[in-house]
């Protein structure tokens, strides 16, 4: 606190006691209703895949892999759409991978097989 000097013969200024200021409380964030894309009415566009559909991983560490979209792991709190999903690869490894939903695209011409 800075010292304040008073003029000669005047009373020294009295400062008000400092009180802690309460931080404003943010209103609770409303979460969007989770969307599990099971039908075409749940899709935002052609780049969204449906649960049970074949997908191609187009980005990330598993880029280029073909897989089946098996389930949703978690949802984006703002949009409600999937954030992470599980996919089962359609190759000799038959791996179950967790990938970002934004990294897959529907592969509707693929009919199955390994």
Tags for this entry?
0% helix, 114 residues, mainly beta
Short description:
The chain has strands spanning 54-57, 66-75, 82-89, 96-100, 104-106.
Descriptive notes:
This protein is rod-shaped. It is built from no helices and five strands. The protein has 114 residues and is mostly beta strands. β1 and β2 (66-75) form a beta hairpin. 0% of the residues lie in helices and 26% in strands.
Task: Show the helix and strand layout.
Elements: E1 54-57, E2 66-75, E3 82-89, E4 96-100, E5 104-106
Antiparallel strand pairs: 1-2, 1-5, 2-3, 3-4
Q: What characterizes the major β-sheet?
A: 5 strands, antiparallel
Radius of gyration: 29 Å
H/I helix tally = 0
Distance between the termini: 75 Å
Give the low-confidence spans. Answer: none
Shape, principal axes of CA atoms:
rod-shaped
